[in-house]
Amino acid sequence: MLLFEPHLSGADADMLLGALLDLGADFSRIAPLAGFSGPGVERVELRPEKVTSRGIAATRLAVRLEESPSLCCRREMELLLEKAGLLLRASPSTLQQARESLRLLFEAEAAVSGTSAETVRLHEAASSFDTVVGLLGFFHLLEGLGETEILSTAIAVGGGTVVTGRGLVVVPSPVVVEAARLREVPLRGGPVEGELATDVAVALLAVAARFVENLPSFVPLRVGYGAGTKELPLANVVRATRVKGGSLEEATLVEASIDDATGEEMARFLEELQELTLETHLVQALGKKGRPLFLIRALARPDQLEGVRAYLLEETPTLGLRSWPVRKDQMDRRFEIRTAVVDGKSYPLRVKISRIGDVVKEKPEDEDVRRLSLRR
Question: What is the distance between the alpha carbons of residues 100 and 312, in angstroms, rounded to a whole number?
Answer without folding.
Answer: 31
